[in-house]
Each structure stands twice: as C-alpha cells, then as structure tokens.
Write a structure and sequence with these properties.
The protein contains five helices and four strands, in the order H-H-E-H-E-H-E-H-E. With about 170 residues, it is α+β, with helices and mostly antiparallel strands. The structure holds flavin mononucleotide (FMN).
Length: about 170
C-alpha cells in the first residue's frame, strides 16, 4: 500500500535528530508540488535548533508538539512570486507543497503533523516576529516531524456515497 494511504498525523516524537539527507529529500518533495502557473511561491525554514523549536512550540495554540520534534519545517509563502493580490491560488499551491512534505516524511519512516498557521493573524504574527521575516514572506504551515513511537498506518476513509459519476443524483 503506498504512502498516500498510510500517512497519519503523528504528534509524539523521540528525542532523536533527523538526518540531513532525510531533511533534504523532504524539502525537495515540497518543491516538486504543482503550483498555479508553475510559480513555486514557497520558501522553507528548516528548524533543528533547540531554542527555535521551543519557540515554534508556542507559535500557535496547537504547536506544542514542535518543541519535542526532531525537526520543524515552516512552509512560507513568498508574495513576490507573481502578482500576490491576484494570485488567488497561492494557498492551494502551499497546501499541495505541505502535503508533499508530509508524504515524504512518512516515506522516510518518520512521523509528521501539519499545524495550521495561516491565515490566523496571531499565528502569522508570532512566526513573523520570532524569525524576523520580511513583509513579503508569510508563514503558511508549521510541520513538526521526527522519529516517533507511533506508526503511519492505513485508516480506510473511502465513502462511496461521496463519489458522483457523470451527474449529481
Ligand atoms: C490545514 C490543516 C491544519 C491542521 N492543524 C492541525 C493542528 O494545528 N494541530 C494538529 O494536531 N493537527 C492539525 N492538523 C492535522 C489534522 O488534525 C489531521 O490531518 C486529521 O485529523 C486527519 O488525520 P490524519 O492526518 O492522521 O489522516 C491539521 C491539518 C490540516 C490539513
């Protein structure tokens, strides 16, 4: 069964760093995502430093797990890529990028969790202030990742009644 089906949100981590080559492949997977007009409007903050992980743990009401993660990736929107005001698809681009990262995390035998950040104003401000991000860079998602006692495992969510072939009724 492929990783799309077995990926789970994993929120408990062992006190063990994530190897650099795994981090590299995980970020590469993010950059392989589709994006409107192929604008690739993403940047990545990869956090392995203990102090910054502790800070990330306080950036949203639900980001506490980041403090104990092997690493944290903050996926950022670069508003200078294309015409941001008219780039109605930028959030979709960053969502696809975040999902690719989560899938690669599972592929690497690690656990990870998407921590919702954008568009909550407090979350966005907390990240921007701590990392001193320029105006044109906005945080989109925080991803906690690492080795975990919990496993990625299949949960069947298939609901045939949600599938509509050729017409609604
Ligand atoms: C936009 C978004 C925001 C999320 N934010 C959080 C979060 O702040 N904290 C958390 O523990 N999980 C968060 N999740 C993970 C969901 O709770 C999780 O994907 C969902 O319960 C389904 O479980 P699964 O990922 O194991 O399939 C978020 C997921 C998405 C897509």
């Amino acid at each position: 069964m492929n990783t799309i089906f077995t990926r789970r949100s994993i929120r408990r981590f062992e006190n063990k760093p994530v190897e650099q080559e795994k981090l590299d492949r995980i970020v590469r997977a993010g950059m392989q995502a589709p994006s409107a007009h192929n604008r690739q409007p993403w940047e990545f903050l990869v956090i392995t430093d203990e102090e910054a992980k502790q800070a990330a743990g306080k950036m949203t009401p639900y980001s506490g797990m980041a403090a104990h993660a092997g690493a944290v990736i903050i996926v950022l929107m670069n508003k200078k890529t294309g015409d941001f005001e008219n780039n109605l698809f930028i959030q979709q681009d960053l969502g696809a990028c975040t999902e690719n990262i989560l899938l690669q995390i599972a592929e690497e035998g690690l656990g990870g969790c998407w921590i919702g950040t954008y568009p909550n104003a407090d979350n966005v401000r907390n990240v921007k202030e701590y990392f001193k991000l320029p105006d044109y860079i906005e945080p989109f998602s925080i991803i906690a990742l690492g080795y975990s006692p919990d496993e990625n495992r299949f949960i069947d969510r298939y609901k045939p009644e949600k599938v509509h072939y050729n017409k609604w009724e």
